[in-house]
């Protein structure tokens, strides 16, 4: 059974607290916090996402799954450390070299935060292989980052398959998370490919029944 990380990216601000409560009752496994800086991607929602994360911490024990779509990774990590997220994921495309990636990994490890690395649809898997042994999770973007509600790019399913095989061959115990265009139909495809954490936003938060939607992704 896969776990579900519900993206709050498209949650209505006026209904946010009630939505977060209902998602907890519906048994989401994580709250997925999509942080954007207006540089790495066009949208800048840092203020709103921090507010949402704070609200979630006040009313819920469900862990935070923070996805940084930003250029200044360390600054944004420091911003979330006080909230004690379960995991923080940074983009491999936002670091200049392996040494910078390892510095970020050390910062997360020193603060007892699980380490995730994300790759865009067009980024080759080889770009993460030299640091993959140090991370807990790889996030495969199944859409272009920065905008909710997109359809899954089918070619990314093969990337999940290859990553899953690579992890098995190298005895790596990592989670494989997918993000983008995840619904009842595409969930089957990515789970069969090897993903075990599914990020979904609109499919859940705009549904009539959060619990049914989440369960349809898990099972």
Low-confidence stretches: none
Total individual domains: 1
First CA to last CA: what distance?
Answer: 6 Å
Corresponding CATH architecture = Alpha-Beta Barrel
The residue-averaged pLDDT reads 96
Give the class from helix and strand content and strand pairing: alpha/beta
Oligomer: single chain
Number of E-type strands: 8
Which fold does the CATH topology refer to? TIM Barrel
CATH class category: Alpha Beta
Order of helices and strands: EHEHEHEHEHEHEHEHH
Number of helices, where a helix is a run of at least 4 consecutive DSSP H or I residues: 9
The helicity comes to 25-40%
Q: What is the H level of CATH, i.e. the homologous superfamily? A: Aldolase class I
Main sheet overview: 8 strands, parallel, barrel
Radius of gyration: 16 Å
Strand content: 15-25%
Strand order of the largest sheet: 1-2-3-4-5-6-7-8
Overall 3D form = globular
Write the layout of secondary structure elements.
Blueprint: E1 3-7, H1 16-25, E2 30-36, H2 46-59, E3 64-69, H3 73-80, E4 87-91, H4 98-110, E5 114-119, H5 126-129, E6 137-141, H6 155-169, E7 175-179, H7 184-193, E8 197-200, H8 202-205, H9 210-218
Parallel strand pairs: 1-2, 1-8, 2-3, 3-4, 4-5, 5-6, 6-7, 7-8
Helix pairs in contact: 1-2, 6-7
